[in-house]
Fold:
Amino acid sequence: MAKKSQETALEHWGSEELLGMAPMAQKPQGEDAASSQEAVKEAPGIEVGSVGGTGEEAPEEAFNELKEPVSEMSRETMAGEMLADKVDEPRVSGDKKPKSKWPWILVLVLVLAVAGAAMWYFWDHRGSEDDEKIEPGTGMDAEVEAGVGSGKDESIVPEIEELSVDDELVQRLFNEFSPVTSPWDGKTGFYVQALSGGLSRSMVMNIAFSNVLTASDYTSNGCRGNYEFETNNGYHWTATFCYSGEEIRKEIAKLFGFDYTFTENDILTRSCPFSYDIMNDEFFQTTSGCGGIIPAGVIRENYKAERAADRIYLYEMAAYGSQASDGCDTELCRLSDTGWNIGIDGLTVEGIDQMGGLLGYPKADEIFDKFKWTFVWNGENYVFESLERVE
Structure:
């Protein structure tokens, strides 16, 4: 088997020279042999039959050993052995040791570690490519980029698209915050709180509850629990108006994106207060014979709407109309840092109506307050994000 491999190697390379071998010495034949013998005899310092050129006679065994024909080891066998030596043993120069592979292995490990760290960094800080959302059925389906905390480059100004104020989505967002116009339970205070950057817990709950009441046409489905009260005159009264805590939580999530948990201390401070029962997860009316109408409220009109990436902006003009003693000494007031208490002299609610509203009044931009509402897409709805003044 070894001989066959050696022969194949010789056939492949063609000759000894290709293997880096010098031609093998052969025994002289005929006249050439005689000439060679004479040349040896004539060579200075070397005598036939001597060893090392010393002139001393070598032992007969050594002399016979030198005379053994080289041909006893075939050239093919020697070539195969030399080829095996070249394949199996590393080439060395002098006494140098073969180079170690460990430095290269360490370099490779370091390169792979750096490359892995770089890939992790760019993956962790990548743009939010998976955050694209499809706007739910609004009559103007389009892709919007969800971007709350998504790591997007804030230096890139998104393209602004102007929307019609009559658009279905615009109308829905505007009307969902109609409760802020009512003076009941202090909801007109929404503007002061929102401009300061925070809304109270009761404000959020009362706005959501107002929408639930409107959707139900102020009709209760009854109460799960039994809530009895005794009045000052000894009259016993049982609550029959209750509203589901789950329904109000859903409305809060829809408007603000908050995940609310109610407590026993939560009260909806309307003209008829509602307290929360944690066991039955419902708000129940705590008094009877309450109600009434306050001839005051915020007048608000939407005059522009825009969309940019994952946000929608609504622009409104507003004023406070009042015929009651509630801080506004005139019929119309503007907003201060504490409430709607900056009087607008010479204007009346009736006069505004006759002009077709705030927007139709001459020099309205100079007289009334203007605000910009921002709603952001949170993956399910456009929820309230901020309120700011428009100069």
The chain has eleven helices and 15 strands.
